[in-house]
C-alpha cells in the first residue's frame, strides 16, 4: 500500500495525528509512506501522489484543499480527511475563535460591556463562515474521515457516516521515565496551550488552597502560562517552561520530574470531543494524575489508573490532589497502573495496525 499524507506543520497536532502513525508504518515496512510538507517542490509532491492508494489531508478548511480533494477523487485516489477537534463549538475564550467563530461576542468586565470579538476588527465573520463551510464540504467529499474518538465522530455525523476512530498514541520506547533524584518537593504538573484558559480556571481556587496547605509543593507549567490562576501563589512556587519541538518534547517532559499531573477539563461539547493525550503522555512516564471525570478521560478510567474528580468542584479537586500528596505509595501504585494501561492501549508500535487495517478497509486492499 502506498500512502501519501500532508503534514501541515511540525506541531503536536500534526505529529500525533499523521506523522507518528504513518512514519511508524513506514519504519515497520508495513506501507510505502510519503510525507508532503509546506515548501516541498512539485516533483516531490507528484512522486508522492502518483499511484497513491490513499492520500490523507488533515484539518481541511480552505478552498484549495477542497478543490484538491475533488481532483484526487477524479483520479480514482482514495482520500481521507482528518480532524481531532470539533470545530463548530469553539469557545470565545480560545484564540482559535478567530478562525471558526460564528458571531460577535460581548462580555462584561467590572460592570462595563466590552466587545471580545468584533466583526471587521479582530474577526472576519464572512471568512470564518467560509472555513466552517469548507470543513463540511471536505467531510462530505472525502471517502472517510479519521477522528480520535467516537464522540467526535458522532459530532460530525451530520456530514458523513464514514469514519475511522483512531486514538492518539505515543511511542513508549521514547516516552520513558528517567531515574531522577527528588529534593523534597512535590511537583504538580500542568500543560496546555493558549486555548486551555477555561480548563485551568476549573482548578484555580484549588491551586491556591493546595499551595497554602502544602509548603513543599511546586507547580510546574509547560506551555502557555496564565498568570491569573496562579496570582495568589508565591512566584517561587511556580516554575514555567515553554513548549519545545515535538522531537524533544518527551525528554523535556520527563526531565521536569513531575510527581502528580493535573488534568482539569471544563465540561463542554468541544472538550468532550477531545482526546486523552495529556493523560496518555503523563501515564507513559508513570506519573499519576488527578483528572476531571469528563470525556475523553472518563472513558479511559479503569478504577485504578487515575484519581478522578466527579463534579469539578474546588473541594473535590483539593481532596483528590491532597490524597496523592499525602500518600507516595498510592502515587506509585496509580502511576504504575497508568503506565501499564498506556502500553497496552496507546503504544503506537502496537496500535499502528489499527491505522493500517482502517486504511485497507477503505481502500479495499
Strand residue percentage: 15-25%
First-residue to last-residue Cα separation: 8 Å
Q: How many discrete structural domains?
A: 2
* CATH class designation of the largest domain: Alpha Beta
Q: Helix content range of the residues, please?
A: 40-55%
CATH homologous superfamily of the largest domain, by name? Glycogen Phosphorylase B
Number of strands: 14
Structural class: alpha/beta
Specify the CATH architecture of the largest domain: 3-Layer(aba) Sandwich
Task: Report the major sheet.
Answer: 6 strands, parallel
| Contiguous helical run count | 15
Lateral strand order in the biggest sheet: 2-1-3-4-7-8
Instruction: Name the poorly predicted regions.
Output: none
Based on CA atoms alone, the radius of gyration comes out at 22 Å
Overall mean pLDDT stands at: 95
Question: Can you characterise this structure?
Answer:
The protein has helices at residues 12-27, 42-49, 63-74, 97-100, 125-141, 150-155, 197-201, 204-213, 249-255, 269-272, 277-284, 297-300, 314-326, 328-345, 348-363, and strands spanning 2-7, 32-37, 54-58, 78-82, 105-109, 112-117, 144-147, 163-165, 186-192, 217-223, 238-241, 260-263, 289-292, 307-309. The chain is α/β, with parallel strands linked by helices. It has two domains: 2-87 and 126-169 and 348-363, Glycogen Phosphorylase B (Rossmann fold), CATH 3.40.50; 186-345, Rossmann fold (3-Layer(aba) Sandwich), CATH 3.40.50.2000. It has a six-stranded parallel β-sheet with strand order 2-1-3-4-7-8, with helices on both faces. It is globular and about 65 Å long. It starts with a strand and ends with a helix.
Amino acid at each position: 500500500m502506498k500512502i501519501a499524507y500532508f503534514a501541515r506543520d511540525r506541531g503536536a497536532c500534526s505529529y500525533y495525528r499523521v506523522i507518528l502513525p504513518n512514519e511508524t508504518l513506514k519504519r515497520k515496512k508495513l506501507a510505502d509512506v510519503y510525507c508532503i510538507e509546506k515548501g516541498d517542490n512539485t516533483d516531490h509532491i507528484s512522486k508522492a501522489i502518483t499511484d497513491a492508494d490513499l492520500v490523507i489531508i488533515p484539518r481541511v478548511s480552505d478552498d484549495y484543499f477542497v478543490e484538491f480533494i475533488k481532483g484526487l477523487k477524479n483520479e480514482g485516489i482514495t482520500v481521507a480527511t482528518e480532524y481531532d477537534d470539533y470545530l463548530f463549538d469553539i469557545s470565545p475564550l480560545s484564540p482559535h475563535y478567530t478562525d471558526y467563530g460564528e458571531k460577535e461576542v460581548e462580555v462584561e468586565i467590572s460592570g462595563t460591556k466590552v466587545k471580545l470579538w468584533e466583526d471587521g476588527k479582530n474577526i472576519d465573520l464572512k471568512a470564518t463562515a467560509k472555513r466552517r463551510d469548507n470543513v463540511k464540504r471536505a467531510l462530505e467529499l472525502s471517502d472517510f474521515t479519521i477522528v480520535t474518538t467516537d464522540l467526535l465522530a458522532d459530532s460530525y455525523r451530520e456530514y458523513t457516516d464514514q469514519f475511522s476512530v483512531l486514538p492518539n498514541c505515543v511511542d513508549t520506547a521514547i516516552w520513558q521515565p528517567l531515574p531522577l533524584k527528588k529534593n523534597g518537593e512535590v511537583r504538580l504538573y500542568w500543560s496546555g496551550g493558549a486555548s486551555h484558559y477555561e480548563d485551568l480556571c476549573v482548578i484555580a481556587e484549588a491551586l491556591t488552597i493546595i499551595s497554602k496547605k502544602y509548603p513543599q509543593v511546586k507547580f510546574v507549567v509547560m506551555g502557555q502560562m496564565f498568570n491569573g490562576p496562579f496570582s495568589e501563589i508565591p512566584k517561587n512556587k511556580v516554575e514555567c517552561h515553554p513548549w519545545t519541538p515535538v522531537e524533544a518534547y518527551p525528554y523535556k517532559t520527563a526531565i521536569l520530574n513531575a510527581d502528580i499531573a493535573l488534568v482539569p477539563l471544563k465540561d463542554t461539547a468541544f472538550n468532550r470531543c477531545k482526546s486523552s493525550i495529556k493523560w496518555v503522555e503523563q501515564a507513559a512516564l508513570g506519573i499519576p494524575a488527578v483528572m476531571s471525570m469528563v470525556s475523553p478521560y472518563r472513558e479511559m478510567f479503569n478504577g485504578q489508573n487515575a484519581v478522578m474528580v466527579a463534579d469539578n468542584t474546588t473541594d473535590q479537586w483539593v481532596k483528590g490532589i491532597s490524597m496523592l500528596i499525602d500518600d507516595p505509595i498510592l502515587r506509585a501504585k496509580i502511576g504504575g497502573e497508568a503506565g501499564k494501561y498506556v502500553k497496552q492501549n496507546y503504544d503506537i508500535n502496537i496500535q499502528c495496525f489499527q491505522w493500517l487495517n482502517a486504511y485497507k478497509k477503505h481502500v479495499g486492499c
